[in-house]
């Protein structure tokens, strides 16, 4: 079953100057996909458009076969999409527990407490001090809280925008350990990541976006150490 499908997807900020151009992509259920590419290629724009935060000019998005093109955020969440933005992804003045409780408000009332408890059980670092303010957490813990918020509604597909941005190597390892556990739970992951080495170690598959178009699509293991990657990051097109 295909978890996420993009067909002839065109998106951006100005209809006369699309950033993402004719992207067609099928992400099978349970796959971990990383989107790589040079700065400014449109990676963040692509995933933010899928998540309903950037205008889609043409083409379509499907979740498990269902057309969700231009669906509002709450409808996307109900259809099984979770999104973790790169920044401002937690309420810094609220506690860990409160951050989770707010995210749980999308769920039926009777399900909320159990889902908050399940998320705390999944992230022991958060469970250790649920009353701590999110603003007092380390960068890695903050990313875990952001992921936990997105996972509360049990998405089938979780999209993450540079989950390791600004983190020290130790915290990068922690965040990627958490992502590995999430993937092992069967969630389809799509991540944009500058940390190519960590992303390729986690991912099953990598696609490379160059100037808004898919330039390469390969098993992640094939790209490790591949000189093509260096060329692509300098902005050259795939031959
Ligand atoms: N809010 C915005 N309004 C207008 N243009 C934008 C906006 N955000 C990004 N852009 C432009 O869209 C293009 C693609 O940017 P985007 O952030 O999607 O690329 P990226 O591949 O994620 O790059 P990076 O790796 O540097 O984050 C760039 O030319 C950028 O200037």
Automatic annotation (TrEMBL):
<dbReference type="InterPro" id="IPR052156">
    <property type="entry name" value="BCAA_Transport_ATP-bd_LivF"/>
</dbReference>
<feature type="domain" description="ABC transporter">
    <location>
        <begin position="4"/>
        <end position="236"/>
    </location>
</feature>
<keyword id="KW-0547">Nucleotide-binding</keyword>
<dbReference type="GO" id="GO:0015658">
    <property type="term" value="F:branched-chain amino acid transmembrane transporter activity"/>
</dbReference>
<dbReference type="InterPro" id="IPR003593">
    <property type="entry name" value="AAA+_ATPase"/>
</dbReference>
<dbReference type="GO" id="GO:0015807">
    <property type="term" value="P:L-amino acid transport"/>
</dbReference>
<keyword id="KW-0067">ATP-binding</keyword>
<dbReference type="GO" id="GO:0005524">
    <property type="term" value="F:ATP binding"/>
</dbReference>
<dbReference type="GO" id="GO:0016887">
    <property type="term" value="F:ATP hydrolysis activity"/>
</dbReference>
<dbReference type="Pfam" id="PF00005">
    <property type="entry name" value="ABC_tran"/>
</dbReference>
<dbReference type="InterPro" id="IPR027417">
    <property type="entry name" value="P-loop_NTPase"/>
</dbReference>
<protein>
    <submittedName>
        <fullName>Branched-chain amino acid transport ATP-binding protein LivF</fullName>
    </submittedName>
</protein>
<dbReference type="InterPro" id="IPR003439">
    <property type="entry name" value="ABC_transporter-like_ATP-bd"/>
</dbReference>
<keyword id="KW-0029">Amino-acid transport</keyword>
<comment type="similarity">
    <text>Belongs to the ABC transporter superfamily.</text>
</comment>
<keyword id="KW-0813">Transport</keyword>
